[in-house]
């Protein structure tokens, strides 16, 4: 491991409370004073490379040993953070108990070891932490014959064997569900929405297999993974009503149980985020807004150390901003979106290095779409360039496709008719190359290539837009094509051209009419 460079990143990632804890712990040992000086130079002075660190510590007398000190410092920080966070949730408490159990056993304190073991087993069973039970049963086996509380006989040995077999079978079952959950999540993140009979058939097969595994889902974790897999599969095929039910079961599994929430807050954050997406797809915007409040309230159920976690708070805030902006744009609430855009962009700028890539692309797309709607094409092109300079291969296919179409529409709105024929051909080849040229995209590209670029006046353009709208309305009823209309409202854009009104107003009018 490259401790030399990583130690700077590690110290920078620590919270104020974590840094204080380490400083106090390291200060107890005078032998660690050099380590503390290095730590505080990086922490308080914001030094980020060896050159500046050596310059700052040039009179210390130990600069020649700096590389070795950084290795020890890195290891000491991790050791310190294990102690600091050992009570952060039950899983960490149980892992710490396992270390304590081995220590007590080695000291021949068998009675104390047995009491702690019973407590650890009860805690592991309470939260379904079966991986820890394997280690705990090993300790129980070690205690056979050495403690006064249990006889060393065949019955005791066989009882532990049966417990271990049950735990291993449960872990094997959970492993199958983890694999299924990972696969379903990958398919949803990669493809967004299925757009071909082949994709639908493959996903339907996965869904059928998953439903048949219901009896195997016997633990809290496996039940959540079972529901998550079905939610992801049905969401990808556009069966939102069914997806809503499966995801609701995941959220309900947490309830108001603080122990369960603290054990896996990321899981609850993700589940609420998925439910917001599903509600948006079902046009249940009030439900989505209520869920945003539920998301905002999650920190109330967390421990103090979790509430101090930058990563957790960042995850919650990211989802709040991203989904709220999505609701505003989909409903055409442009004044609300306009009041929100500065906070939205500031969040991106401050956290760009730690926002996951696919989430960053989603936020870029939302910002691009906002500026496209209000007609600020200069800012829209900034986000277009950011998206195209990034790795769009890790983005959902529907985001990638929608981006290409919006790019063409922006150039049309700007009157770049001399560029449009080349851009249309470029987009066509790009979508063809990635095998994403479906009926919706083909219809729009054909329209822009054969009809729109030859129009010279508003009257004839209006006729062409009406013709395209009628054609797209027919396509929208297609099971495989209706998902293409999700990322941005092409029908509203056509209405804005036909009725000569702002794009945002056209979106709002359609939203009002659908209520």
List the topology elements.
Elements: H1 3-13, H2 16-27, H3 33-45, H4 50-56, H5 66-84, H6 90-106, H7 110-127, H8 130-143, H9 154-191, H10 197-211, H11 220-236, H12 240-254, H13 258-263, H14 265-281, H15 285-296, H16 304-307, H17 310-331, H18 334-351, H19 357-374, H20 377-389, H21 397-413, H22 420-433, H23 439-450, H24 458-475, H25 490-498, H26 503-514
Helix pairs in contact: 1-5, 2-3, 2-5, 3-5, 6-7, 6-8, 7-8, 8-9, 9-11, 10-11, 11-12, 12-14, 14-15, 14-17, 15-17, 17-18, 17-19, 18-19, 19-20, 19-21, 21-22, 22-23, 23-24, 24-25, 25-26
- Give the integer mean of the pLDDT values: 86
User: Proportion of β residues?
Assistant: under 5%
Rounded to the nearest angstrom, the radius of gyration is 29 Å
Report the count of strand segments: 0
Q: Please report the distance between the alpha carbons of the first and last residues.
A: 57 Å
Order of helices and strands: HHHHHHHHHHHHHHHHHHHHHHHHHH
What does the oligomeric state look like here?
single chain
Helix content: over 70%
Look at the helices and sheets and give the structural class.
Answer: mainly alpha
Q: For the report, how would you describe the main beta sheet?
A: none
Number of H/I helices: 26
Shape: globular
Poorly predicted segments: none
């Amino acid at each position: 491991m490259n401790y030399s460079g990583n130690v700077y990143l590690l110290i920078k990632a620590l919270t104020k409370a974590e840094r204080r804890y380490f400083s106090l712990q390291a200060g107890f040992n005078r032998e660690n004073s050099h380590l503390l000086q290095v730590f505080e130079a990086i922490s308080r002075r914001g030094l980020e490379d060896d050159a500046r660190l050596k310059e700052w510590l040039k009179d210390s007398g130990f600069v020649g040993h700096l590389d070795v000190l950084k290795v020890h410092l890195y290891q000491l920080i991790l050791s310190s953070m294990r102690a600091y966070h050992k009570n952060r949730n039950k899983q960490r408490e149980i892992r710490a108990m396992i270390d304590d159990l081995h220590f007590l056993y080695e000291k021949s304190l068998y009675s104390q070891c047995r009491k702690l073991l019973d407590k650890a087993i009860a805690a592991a069973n309470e939260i379904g932490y079966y991986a820890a039970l394997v280690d705990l049963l090993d300790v129980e086996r070690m205690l056979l014959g050495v403690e006064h509380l249990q006889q060393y006989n065949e019955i005791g040995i066989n009882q532990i064997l049966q417990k271990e077999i049950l735990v291993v079978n449960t872990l094997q079952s959970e492993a199958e569900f983890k694999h299924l959950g990972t696969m379903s999540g990958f398919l949803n993140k990669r493809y967004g929405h299925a757009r071909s009979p082949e994709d639908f058939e493959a996903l339907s097969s996965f869904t059928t297999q998953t439903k048949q595994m219901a009896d195997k889902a016997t633990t809290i974790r496996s039940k959540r993974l079972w529901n998550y897999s079905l939610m992801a599969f049905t969401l990808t095929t556009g069966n939102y009503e069914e997806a809503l039910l499966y995801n609701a079961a995941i959220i309900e599994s947490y309830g108001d149980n603080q122990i369960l929430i603290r054990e896996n807050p990321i899981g609850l954050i993700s589940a609420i985020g998925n439910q917001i997406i599903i509600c948006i797809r079902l046009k249940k915007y009030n439900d989505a807004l209520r869920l945003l409040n539920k998301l905002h309230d999650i920190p109330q159920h967390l421990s103090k150390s979790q509430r101090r976690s930058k990563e957790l708070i960042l995850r919650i805030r990211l989802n709040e901003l991203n989904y709220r902006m999505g609701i505003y744009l989909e409903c055409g609430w442009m004044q609300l979106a306009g009041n929100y855009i500065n906070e939205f962009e500031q969040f991106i700028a401050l956290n760009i290095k730690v926002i996951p890539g696919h989430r960053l692309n989603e936020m870029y797309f939302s910002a691009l779409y906002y500026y496209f709607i209000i007609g600020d094409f200069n800012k829209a092109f900034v986000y277009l360039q950011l998206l195209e300079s990034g790795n769009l291969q890790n983005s959902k296919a529907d985001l990638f496709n929608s981006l290409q179409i919006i790019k063409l529409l922006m150039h049309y709105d700007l009157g770049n008719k001399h560029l449009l024929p080349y851009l249309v051909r470029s987009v066509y080849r790009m979508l063809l190359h990635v095998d994403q040229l479906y009926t919706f995209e083909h219809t729009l590209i054909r329209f822009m290539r054969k009809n729109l670029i030859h129009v010279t006046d508003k009257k004839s353009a209006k006729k062409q837009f009406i013709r395209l709208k009628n054609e797209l309305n027919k396509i929208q009823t297609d099971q495989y094509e209706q998902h293409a209309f999700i990322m941005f409202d092409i029908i509203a854009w056509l209405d804005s051209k036909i009725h000569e009104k702002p794009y945002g107003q056209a979106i709002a009018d359609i939203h009002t009419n659908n209520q």
